[in-house]
Structures are given as C-alpha cells and as structure tokens.
Write a structure and sequence with these properties.
This protein is α/β, with parallel strands linked by helices. The chain has three domains: 101 residues, Arc Repressor Mutant, subunit A (Orthogonal Bundle); 134 residues, Aspartate Aminotransferase, domain 1 (Alpha-Beta Complex), CATH 3.90.1150.10; 237 residues, Type I PLP-dependent aspartate aminotransferase-like (Major domain) (Aspartate Aminotransferase, domain 2), CATH 3.40.640.10. 42% of the residues lie in helices and 13% in strands. The chain has 17 helices and 16 strands. Strands 4-11-10-9-8-5-6-7 form an eight-stranded mixed beta sheet, sandwiched between helices. Helix 9 links the parallel strand 5 and strand 6. Helix 1 crosses helix 3, helix 6 crosses helix 14 and helix 15 packs parallel to helix 17. The longest helix is centred in the C-terminal third of the chain and has 29 residues. The mean pLDDT is 92. The protein binds 4'-deoxy-4'-aminopyridoxal-5'-phosphate. The site of 4'-deoxy-4'-aminopyridoxal-5'-phosphate has 14 residues, from helix 8. 4'-deoxy-4'-aminopyridoxal-5'-phosphate binds next to helix 8.
C-alpha cells in the first residue's frame, strides 16, 4: 500500500497515515472486509516505525472504522456511506484549473443523452443502442476459451506482446477480410482498442487542431464528438439513398482542402444506406486527384441481409490512399474492445508508433482469446445465424411501423446493419418526442446528434432493430406510436 507522507508537515506521521486510510474507508475505495497490511509490513513499506502504524490503526479502531482479529489482522468495517457531494464545475472550492476546463464540445448533447430509459417503466424497451443483441454471444464458450488460453500460454498471455497486435489474430483478420473480398496482408493490420481508437489515432496523426476534416451528413455521432474534441474544422457532404453524394464532394475539396475524408460506406450510421459501386470508384479518383486520404469505417459491413455487397474502398485502393477500420464490437461484444485498422505505406508504421505512445498495447489476453474463438468457420457461422435473426427483426420492425405509426413517416429500409432511419411527419421534433416515448417505456436516438447543425436532424430518429425479439419490437413500436399520437395532439 502506498501512502504519501510529508515529513515537513507538522501533522505527525501516524495522523497522516490515519487520515489517508480514513478517507479511503469513508469514500468506499477501501471496501468493508478489506484486510489492511500487517503493521510491520506497512511500516517497512513507508519507512516508518512500526509503532507509528499501530497508532494509526488504533485511532481508526477507536472510531469504529476498523477492527482487529487476533492473529489474523486488521479489517475495514462497514460504514454509513457518505452523502455524495454534488458540486457544479463552477463551484469556487475546486482548484482554479478545474473550474476552467476546456469544453471541447463534450457536453453538447448532455440534455438529450441524459434522457434514457433508466427512469421508471417496469419493462422498458430501448431502440437507442448502437450494438447488436448480446444474448447471441456465446458467453460460456468464451469463458472456456479464456481459461484455455491461460492454460496454454500462461504468463505470456499477460505481456504487452507484439505492438501491432497478436500475430495470429492479425492473420485471422486477414482471412476474414479475404472472405469479404478484401485481400490484405496481416503485416498491414494494426489491432486497436475498438474501432473508436482507430478513428482517433488516424485523425490525430493526420490532422492538427484547426485542420479540416470532411464527413458525411449525417454521420456517426461518436466520430463528430471526437473530431470536435480534437478541435478540427468539420465540413460535410450530404448522404442520400446511395450513400455520400460524391458529386458534391469535389467542390468541397477545392474550397476547403480537407486533410481527411471520413466515410461509413456500408450500412451507414445512422441512415443504414450503402455507397453505390459507381460512387466508390469516383471517391477513390477524387482522393487521388486532391491528395486526400480516406478513412473507411466499416463497422458492420458483414451484416448484410439482402442485396449484393460492393467492394470495400480499400479493395479499390491502388495502394496507400485508404485506411480501412473495422471492429468486433458489433458482431461479438463491444466490451472486448478489439477493433483494427488496415493501412499501407509509411502511415502504417507511424500509426503503430502512435498507438504505442497512446496506450502501449491492446490487451494480449483478450486478443488471444478472440483469436482462439474467431476461427474463420466459427465466425462465419455466427454471422450467418445473427444475420438470419436480424433480417427477421428488421422486417418485424417495418411491419410494426406500418401498423402503429401514422402515415407520413419516411423510411428507406436498409439491406443490412443495425439501424432504421426514420423521418417524422408534419415537422414533428424527435427531441420533443423522446420524453413522451420514455414515459411510454420506449426510447430511440434522436437524429439531431448525428448532424453538424443539430436543427438539420430535428425530424429524424434512429431505431436499432437488432437488439429485441420480434414480439418486443412490435410492443416497442406500438408504444412509440402512442407517443407520436400524443405529440401530434399537442403540436
Ligand atoms: N464506428 C461506428 C460507425 C460506430 O457506430 C461505432 C460505435 N457505435 C464505432 C465506430 C466505434 O465502436 P467500437 O470502438 O466499439 O469498435
């Protein structure tokens, strides 16, 4: 145990130890039943006399915060939890630097984000999430895999390992991508902590604060938040039924000279659209002509229920133009925090080094377990099963929308992915609908968070159709229908 001691402080050492432990106990960071270090050991660790530690323990015992068991040690006793101090950031008792933290746009949508289903309803149904159905993840198998990996690799599994990522996992990823028509070498794969880290690494490496990035409008709110937090100037090109309107791109490139184009070409978040084949080719040509790299975020490209897949932008790249990013968060579980990027040319080495200074490495244990778990065959089987289920759920949501929502709803059914993107009729506002929906026991993502100008998304909302069973979807959309009617009656 480390306790900071200040030998210049007039407060005696035993009191400093006592205060430190008291704070730990009262704040809960030292949980009830925690065994404090033996006084001899702590005295040695802190370079003080044993009596000093014993005096501190006695003072805590006298106040009923610890008790000693003869021959066993000193243990923390349960306390009444301290009331949480709720101070605003403007509170003058915080140090000055804490009162003046840069905002970085991080609190921009706090009000709407804070409105979630946790409040109230006995059987809430959330369509707000950005991931797939966790019940499909075979948790028991994964637990066994984790144990088997520890048995097989022992302590090696807990080392930093190869900074590019565990080599066999990079190979498996290359096989998976090859099965999707993207031929790459494992030497070009960098494993990251989710694809969010890949987005952060690429954009921070290529852009300085104040530089311009081009995104689709709308686009993934987590990317917008990231680019805002990094102080980039963000410009956008609108999305239609065939993805980014690439014909509007050239003018933007000429006018604003962005340093990076961020795009989600498959089952776009939030709209669910796919970039057409012709536009993919056009995008690569423009990237070349204007010397701008493309950041391709393929977060659910393999979750296709119908229609034909278009080649990845990376597959059309003659070399070094496109950085491809993907993740295991959506197909498996987001808490694994394993994603990856594929890059070639000098930028790959820079990204490896940049990742290293950011977090040293991604968990080797999880990478090994994932590699063991995600043999290509098993991954493909999981994908087929999930796609079959999600396809039916998408259809169930479309039917329920027809049945329970008023006419005038605008929707363009996606051929895969996770989301339905819906426009409310009569200029109804999704932000205004949300509290009513929550009171009915259902929620969704309001569209405004996906736009640079929030007002552009006011009538839109995003529904995740993969997380619930068909019955729940029917029930949830019925509740949403009631909320829309209530909003219509007061608008
Ligand atoms: N890209 C898109 C389009 C997403 O929707 C998300 C998560 N919702 C991510 C990237 C990041 O996910 P993760 O870091 O879990 O891979």
């Amino acid at each position: 145990m480390r306790i900071p001691l200040d030998r210049q402080n007039p407060l005696p050492l035993y009191a400093q130890i006592e205060n430190h432990l008291r704070q730990g106990i009262l704040s809960g960071s030292l949980a009830p039943e925690t065994r404090l270090p033996a006084s001899r050991q702590l005295a040695q660790d802190l370079g003080v006399n044993r009596i000093t530690v014993e005096n501190a323990y006695s003072a805590l015992e006298a106040d009923g915060l610890v008790f000693s068991r003869v021959g066993s040690g000193t243990y923390v006793l349960p306390t009444n939890p301290l009331p949480k101090i709720s101070k605003t950031s403007a509170d003058a008792s915080w140090p000055l630097w804490q009162q003046n933290l840069p905002d970085r746009g991080l609190g921009a949508r706090a009000a709407v984000e804070g409105m979630r289903l946790s409040a109230g309803h006995p059987d809430p149904i959330s369509f707000a999430g950005g991931v797939s159905d966790s019940r499909l993840f075979p948790a028991d198998d994964f637990r066994k895999v984790l144990q088997a990996v520890m048995r097989r690799d022992g302590i090696d599994a807990l080392d930093y390992g190869d900074r590019r990522g565990y080599a066999p996992l990079r190979e498996t990823i290359a096989h998976i991508l090859a099965s999707q028509g993207l031929q790459i070498s494992p030497e070009n794969v960098l494993i990251t902590a989710g694809s969010q880290q890949a987005l952060a690494l690429v954009s921070q490496l290529l852009l300085e604060p104040g530089d311009t990035i081009l995104v689709e409008s709308p686009t993934y709110s987590g990317a917008l938040d990231l680019f805002r937090a990094l102080n980039f100037k963000i410009i956008s090109v609108p999305v239609d039924g065939q993805g980014m309107q690439v014909d509007l791109l050239e003018k933007q490139l000429q006018q604003h000279h962005p340093k990076l184009i961020y795009t989600i070409p498959n089952f776009h978040n939030p709209t669910g659209t796919c970039l057409s084949g012709a536009r993919r080719h056009q995008l690569i040509v423009l990237s070349d002509r204007y010397n701008v790299p493309i950041l391709e975020d393929d977060f659910v490209g393999d979750l296709r229920y119908e229609g034909r897949a278009q080649p990845a932008l990376k597959a059309l790249d003659p070399g070094g133009r496109v950085i491809h990013v993907s993740t295991f968060s959506k197909m498996l579980m987001p808490g694994l925090r394993v994603g990856f990027l594929v890059a070639d040319g000098p930028v790959y080495d820079s990204l490896v080094k940049f990742k290293r200074v950011n977090d040293l490495a991604t968990s080797g244990l999880i990478q090994r377990a994932l590699e063991d778990y995600v043999t290509v065959g098993r991954y493909q089987a999981h994908l087929r099963r999930s796609s079959g289920i999600f396809h039916k759920r998408r259809d169930a949501m479309l039917v329920a929308i027809q049945r329970h929502l008023p006419v005038g709803i605008q929707i363009d059914p996606p051929q895969g992915g996770l989301f339905l993107w819906m426009k409310l009729p009569q200029n109804l506002s999704a932000d205004a609908l949300l509290p009513l929906a929550i009171s009915e026991g259902v929620d969704f993502m309001p569209g405004s968070g996906f736009f640079l100008e929030e007002a552009d998304g006011l009538n839109w909302l995003r529904l995740n159709f993969v997380v619930h069973t068909e019955e729940k979807i029917e029930d949830g959309i019925k509740r949403l229908g009631r909320a829309v009617k209530r909003l219509q009656s007061i608008s």
